Amino acid sequence: MKYLRLIYANILRKKMRFFLTIGSFGVALFLFGILVAIHNGFYEGINAVEDNRLIVRNKTSLLVFLPYSYKAKIEAMEGVEYVIPSVWFAGVYKDRKNFFSQFAIETAGWAETYPEYAIDKDQWSTFAMDRQGCMVGKALADKFGWKVGDRIPIEGTIFPGAWEFNISGIFEGNKKNVDLNQMWIRYEYLAESIPFMKGQVGWYAVKANHTDYVNSLISRIDGEFSNSPAETKTEPEKIWMIGFAKQMGNINLILISVGGVVIFTLLLVTGSTMAMSVRERTSEWATLKTLGYGDGLVLGLVLGESFFYAFIGGAVGLGLAWLFVSNGDPTGMMGGLFALSAGNILAGLGLTLITGFFAGVVPAVSAMKLRIVDALRRV
Q1: Distance (Å, rounded) from C-alpha 183 to C-alpha 127?
Q2: Residues 249, 77: contact at Cβ < 8 Å?
Q3: Domain limits, the chain
Q4: Which pTM does this prediction carry?
């Protein structure tokens, strides 16, 4: 601890260099934090998905509808517990910046198919009886200040027109990684209001009695509707969600690529900073050794400076990233899953310290091996 003041004094000797190096770490770790939050937003919700759920969509595209008549045929198959018709609604609340997920669903069997949502039974009953009813997630209700009984206007996009819905209830999550930034409306109301939607659905959510039925159901469902005008593609909901996330871009590849560039850049910047600092203080290292301080201390002082740069810069960058993420998802597409966990913060700090070590180890070893005679000869 007694050498911390010496480290502190040395790094502040060149204040411009200090702030530029700290800034490099800060910007890099801020970017790292945002990318991790985006990764969490797209992929953490997948962990909440039940393994016995399937999605049945049109083989051509998710944008092409399926006949409603498929529901009864799927329900009749062995191993099927519930079949839920669903449609992507995609309306706008006041401003396009207020994007959030909206689904038209049938209420029968929904709560049993999606047990990760905590739904009040009385509110659900109200929703099931009100054609214009809707259920909203707690994160969404908190964001807009909505409460049960409010009537909210939605401007249709896929389904044009001025729509209004009554908030029948507000649902929460039974798991920490459940998306509470979405809204559910009644499929029946949509089908009654839009003529071309009568007898059409976007996709089916299928709950199997047991995970043992999943693989056989995939082949049986697709086989049932093969060579029909609307062939199906059935897949586990987790796979479907991963594919949907990848349509936004390969987040994992982007994260790894940017992370690699960040580490390489920090190694160059910090390594250059430490090398210049060691060269400028050649005589000082020699003086310390002349006074009896060992090579280990010199090594520790240089590495200490490198760690200091890394820790302060990383803490600043991650702190700013946390503040940014705490203000919520700017896209509205990830809801409460757009977040940085304590583990993410610690991983980021660990990354900076590892980078600080590798950036400082070469200059530190150089200072440690410095011969007193050679160093004083340069003075």
Answers
A1: 12
A2: no
A3: 4-44+250-377, 60-230
A4: 0.70
